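Inputs:
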Amino acid sequence: MQLWIDNQKLETVSERFENINIQKSENFTSIQVEKNQLIQLLKFLKEDLGFKMFIDFFCVDYPLHNPRFQGIYLLFNPDERQRVAVKCWAEGDSLPTITSLWKGAKWAEREAWDMFGVKFEGHENLVRMFLWEGYKYHPLRKDFPLRGIEDTYLPSLNLRPDEKPAHNYSPYHTVLPTMEDLERTQKARIQKKNQIVLNWGPLHPGTHGTIWFLFDMEGEYVKECDIVLGQLHRGVEKIAENLTYTQFIPYTDRMDYISALCSQVAYVNAVEKVLGVEPPEKAKYIRTMMCELQRINSHLLWLGTFALDLGALTIFLYTFREREKIMDIIEGIAGIRLNSTYIRIGGVAKDLPEGALDVITHFINDFPEKLEEYETILTTNRIWLRRNVDLGIINEEDVYSYGLTGVVARSAGVPYDIRMIQPTDAYDRVDFEVPLGRVGDCYDRYLLRMEEMRQSLNIIKQCVEKLKGMEGEKYIATDNPYVLPTLNEVFNSIESMVKDFNLRIYGEQVPEGEVYLSGENPRGELGFYINSKGEGRPYRMRIRSGAFYNLQIFTELIKGRTVADAVVLLGSLDPVVGETDR
Amino acid sequence: MELLGTVVVLTIKSLIFIIGMFLGAAYLTLLERKFAGHVQQRPGPLHVGPHGFLQPIADALKVLTKEDLVPDSVDKVLFYLASLMAFVPAIMILAVVPFGDPFTIFGVEIKPYITDLNVGLLLALAFGSISIYGVIFAGWASNSKYPMIGGLRKAAVLIGYEVALGFALVGPIMMAGSFSLREIVEAQQNMWFIIPNILAFVVVIFCILAETGRTPFDVQEAEAELVGGYVTEYTGMKFGLFPLAEWYIATFVLSAITVILFFGGWNPLPLMGWLPIPAFVWFFIKVFLLFMFFLWVHWTLPRYRVDQITELAWKVMLPLALANIFIVAIWIIIFG
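Outputs:
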């Protein structure tokens, strides 16, 4: 399914602007523009050509090129369902800010500054996104070593003065943020002194992970809010540049650990696209089924914690009762409960075990009743309505401006669902509906997620029907030169063994090119931009996290509301810190 | 001599009441945990003693032997005082709560209450209010942001509900013509006061939920927003006294007062007076049913926001309580 800008629009652009360079390929279409024309081009794309939705912004480092950094803007046209990428070289290591066009670029630009050291002219608050203030380096630059720069003297504390250190012991380590550094980070974000500043997080039961909120409070009301991310930043994008494509699959699990399978599928699909691998039919249905099981799993966890935040303790245990069943199903199929590295390039890791489909059928027959049970307790509960209705209203304008995706976008009535827009796997062959909200408040998001669980059940049912007739078929396309052979094949044929060795040691030699492909994670669009230079490792991998962009609107929505609303709002936006911080 | 005898008898009786309430509260925690467990489809405490029956004792030992940390920045006097302020008044309400009619065993008349004051109900209300200062002190003395917000929330909730509670209690008092809890029970021998006072009963239920800080009104310790609310800085037994006082003793005692005011106290259930059940057993059956009702609410509902709670207090509960006084007045005029 092609989703890139059509030729007619490209011609309009090239007529209007000089000195642009259009690179068109199957998987990626970009317009390269000079820095002084960037804002005009983006404005033209937004206002005249309808590319009004902001998807992502990131940089790529070319150390030998001058200027060194290239910024890439990804935009989406929601009416005609087209994407376009705009590339621009950062002359003098700086780019003009586009926050006046899209507010969602605010954090993306801060991230680019943090990771690459690219400055943004006119950005209102250009501070570090993930790392702390005072850190000297920019880790995603190519000259930054993977193990960090060991320049801080940290001697061992257990070493006696007369003792000689072990031969490989170095007293120099990579720098860690100290308490003072973190305080500086906090103070850099606070202007006013006359109000209470409530440190909500980083380790707080209401923040669902390690997000650090700073609330400037007047009484119970939050006047200003700031979010400090980075407590769970592991540099996944940097890690990706140093691993082969197959080796990176487990890392996608650890980003959005609640919906690991969806992340794997999104990643593997992008890699398959750039490799040109076509998985067998059965693998496609298994992937779709597992994704939807994971979606129900994720939404159940969301419902439990959301209700827990609002004080309904019992729902939490009820949802975990069902979630446990899904966990058992996933464990039975993939072998691992949470971070199930189950999807492989070209298929899935294992065939469905005997009886798996029976267990799933039993679950889908059993589950609607339980869903009714949750709805009986919550949906028309007056307290639930009082807490949720008309809180955190998001409109269509916000969706486009902030690049909101997933349930958050659909609650505002924007039918942005990657499963519909760009169906991967078997999504184009199953029948499902995308529920849309009317108001865009927290209650809508609650209803949507409940309805999505029903739709997921529906998809699983169809997949199970299909899979029943596919017993014994191939589940991984091992004929393809890029696909790792199965264990059985490795042990029985020398060619497979050689191929396995080659792929494991040198990685999949991906042809040169770029690809952007996304999947519908339970938390929004999870996109993977892969820039390959024809090696076994990606030259640059960018992970467009749905939760990262969804969380950004929190600071706007919370203004003038109470702390009690903050938990509801955060719960309904449903960020997972593993994915926001990467 | 007579005075000395009274003092000795009262002391012994008080000790029995206090120790009984302590043990009772400990086992109320077990009751709650078992109840919550079964609501949530899990067994609850199971391993200490048969069916977890010794769990409260293990918990008490654990809490008592924990290190008692006092942060440097707290106001030491208030910090210590707060946990006592929460606990002592809650248990002092027991002084005026009667558990049955006086009865005679081996020729000795035993009164199952400590004292029968003619202003008993007012005293109970007063102690109930003082108990709440403990929470507010705890929030203030902790010198920390979360406890302070918790304490302020509690204060906001209480101002509303104390007023409504006071007005709601006027109805039964009007009908009985007395503040003495024993006389109120005796006045209900033919008909329980719930009949005309149904609105007051509703108000009292809400007030008890609000004052004892149970869901939907547990804003002062909303764990998702305020970590532990006003008890965030507390450890050990100082911490243990707060839930014990609020969730168990206060809920229990206020349930007892509600039963006395609206459900005929130790009078048997209608048409069941022929059963050979002693009066105080009837009383405890009613109190436990009411207590279980609070648990049921607690483990089912989500939580209100603090401004919604105060809104409910002033816009719904206070008018209801006032309407109840009006209805009862008309009732008394018509039926005598």
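Remarks. The mean pLDDT of chain A is 85. The longest helix of chain A spans residues 281-309.
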